[in-house]
Amino acid sequence: MYPNTLEMIKIKHGFTGQRLVVFPFYMIEEALQNSLTSELAIHSMGYFPNAEHHYIDRPSGTDEYILIYCIKGQGFYTLNGERLTVKANQFFILPPHIAHQYGASENHPWHIYWAHFKGSRADAVYEKLSGLQTINTSENSRMTDRKTLFDEMLNVMEGHTDSDSICYVNMCFNQLLASFIYIDVYREAKFPSGKSENISFISRATHYMNENIENRLTIHEMASHMGYSESYFYRLFYEQTHYAPMTYFMHLKINHACYLISSTRLQINQIAMKLGFDDPYYFSRFFKKMTGKSPKEFRDNSSITS
After folding, report:
1. 11 or 41, higher pLDDT
2. How far apart are CA 270 and CA 3, in angstroms?
3. Taking Cα atoms as reference points, which of 204, 41, 230 lies closest to residue 121?
4. What residues are paired with 70 via a beta bridge?
């Protein structure tokens, strides 16, 4: 059994808004002995936003597989002498005991979720997902859902060390990997086939906004995604919502910020970074303008009423 009083090992890595949790060695070994989690067990996991100057060089590799999922910006990795550029919505897995390097682009540093893992099924996972993989966006893509699952796993890892929590995180990791391996099934589970042609203009537009809630979209990007000119997209969106597209998008960001503030342990600067605000002070001012409360006041009030 895992003691309830122990805390995860948390390591600072130097990126504003980062999250990083490492399981103690004995917890990993116990997870690998547990019949529920022996096939796949997490060693460590994290989120590095705007990881400027991030660079790792391991001449002997690691003892675990490493999953790196780029959600924004660019980076690279080198494996078996081949260097590949990694862009937003791409991911890769590095195998154990093989020299590798990876890091962020100098001009557009990547934002990444990552996890080290091992287990009897890890080899099979790597066979399914070897090489640089791309997740193409579509009308039924679920980028936000996948990132939310990453965040929820980190929430548990940062706050609990009992055996049930360890098992939960490791079993969630199977779902996370399934969302990468079986992308079409993962999408159809939420958006059944045959429905896409009936999706309304507003549903398509707001879905795209939600999928990019952590990015800084422009009206040009929104219109291009929908296949319209900027002026026509703006007029059509305003006619159906009575909001300008960018205003609506910022409302969505603040709504998501409210969710993160009230239901997670993320610090305010971490939430600001996740939602594409480089300046946490600007985010706090903007949040108060939109809600009438500062992020701290909103969190304190949520704690009282929850």
Report:
1. 41
2. 29
3. 41
4. 90, 112
Instruction: State how far Cα 60 lies from the chain centre.
Output: 28
Which tokens in the block code for residue 32? 């690998």
Task: Provide the pLDDT for residue 6.
Answer: 36
Range from 23-37, 115-129, 147-161, 198-212 that averages highest in pLDDT: 115-129
Beta-carbon contacts of residue 251 (< 8 Å; ≥ 6 apart):
243, 290
Distance between CA atoms of residues 68 and 45, nearest Å? 10
Cβ neighbourhood burial of 109 (10 Å; 0-12, 13-18, 19+): buried
pLDDT by residue (tens digit) across 206-255?
989 998 988 889 999 999 988 899 999 999 999 999 999 999 999 999 99
Residue with tokens 């360890």: 166
**Rounded distance, CA 198 to CA 151, Å?**
32
- Half-sphere exposure at residue 204, Cβ-oriented, CA atoms within 13 angstroms: 20
